[in-house]
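Q: what sequence does this backbone want?
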């Protein structure tokens, strides 16, 4: 399977020499590295080329690397129902330089791009309605950035008792989590009921 993915990656890279900067096959998955400005051309090719036909946009997500010059990765996950294959396209983005929107290519990208903008602050040029999606009215900042502070913000909610919108400090139940690896939920060192069946199957 990895050979087929590598062959597909090489085919895509050969067809998009100026747009694709690299290909990787890891964990039985194909990843295409592309330049941010070339996203519409790459996506159109992946959707329309007969050898690709990645017609389903599964999602778009962001990754934050605060110490890097191009701080963000924007990651596109696509599915080809025709060929039963998946591909991941990754581009690096700067905080001040927008990434071209692909809403004209995949209509589902509208909300995904809004979510990336809301959570990370990555701008998408030519998006028809780029506004916040998950945070409250008037929220400042982007909560999934690694430098986003855990305190000092207010949240807005409608209070049924007061019959009005109220502002109050954000309350975080915990600032970090201590993992207890002896907990049965996080790595028991004994067999749980039913596990013996998988052990028996492995042995046979």
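A:
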């Amino acid at each position: 399977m990895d050979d087929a993915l590598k062959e597909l990656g090489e085919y895509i890279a050969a067809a998009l020499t100026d747009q694709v900067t690299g290909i990787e096959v890891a964990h039985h998955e194909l990843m295409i590295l592309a330049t941010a400005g070339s996203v519409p051309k790459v996506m159109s090719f992946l959707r329309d080329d007969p050898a690709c036909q990645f017609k389903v946009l599964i999602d778009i997500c962001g990754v934050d690397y605060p110490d890097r010059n191009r701080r963000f990765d924007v990651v596109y996950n696509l599915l080809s129902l025709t060929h039963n294959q998946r591909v991941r396209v990754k581009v690096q983005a700067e905080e001040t330089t927008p990434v071209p929107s692909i809403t004209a290519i995949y209509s589902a990208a509208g909300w995904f791009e809004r979510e990336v903008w809301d959570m990370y602050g990555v701008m998408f040029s030519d998006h028809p309605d780029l506004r916040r999606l998950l945070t409250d009215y008037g929220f400042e900042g982007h909560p999934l950035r690694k430098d986003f502070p855990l305190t000092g913000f207010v949240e807005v909610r409608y209070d049924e008792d007061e019959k009005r919108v109220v502002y109050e400090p954000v309350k975080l139940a915990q600032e970090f989590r201590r993992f207890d690896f002896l907990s049965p939920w996080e790595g028991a060192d004994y067999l749980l009921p039913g596990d013996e069946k998988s052990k028996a199957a492995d042995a046979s």
